[in-house]
Design goal:
6 helices, alpha/beta, 2 domains, 9 strands, 32% strand
Amino acid sequence: MVILLVLLAGCSGLNGGAPSTQPTETTSAIPTTTSSPSNATPTAATPSNTVNYTTLSDTEQQAFDAAQQRATGFAPDAVRESPYVNRTYFPTDAKEVFQEHEYVQKNGSYHQLSWDVGPTLATYEIQVTDHQPSENASVVVLENLSSEVREPVQKAIENGSYDTPFGKWDSLPESLSTADFVRANGTHYKLDVIAGDFWADEMRAEPVE
């Protein structure tokens, strides 16, 4: 029993003391990378064709911020204040700085400006003068006009002329386009309608990759 125990102890000592020859697997940390917006200056950008966002007025900054999301138009007060125009326009003087530059630099990143033409908005100047119609002239009675047409014509009779708000009519109503004269309260008035169309300059601001 003693010998057996010694042998077992010896065998145990040999196996436990020998270095392991099994290969061990080691792992190394995999480097991670994060992407960030490029602040590199575009090849075509120069100090003369680039404006910094911080130098813009509040209105100009708002126009630029909007142009990053959608096409942004500029229009005179007559368009911007019309109740029939359901688009947001910025004042025309706010576009000058953008038309003078090709790039806007904001927070170190560059945005390139591009331009297009917006939808057409129409206005009509109705002019009336006292005049007796000829025998073959086309005459319309004021009371027979629809309210949408009658009210502008009535204002023209009262003031000599009247400009319809932009966007009120997409095209000249047929009742006016075919009439040479209008009769109101027994008086004839010669009708002259002058159309005026407006196309807004619309700007987009796209980030330069």
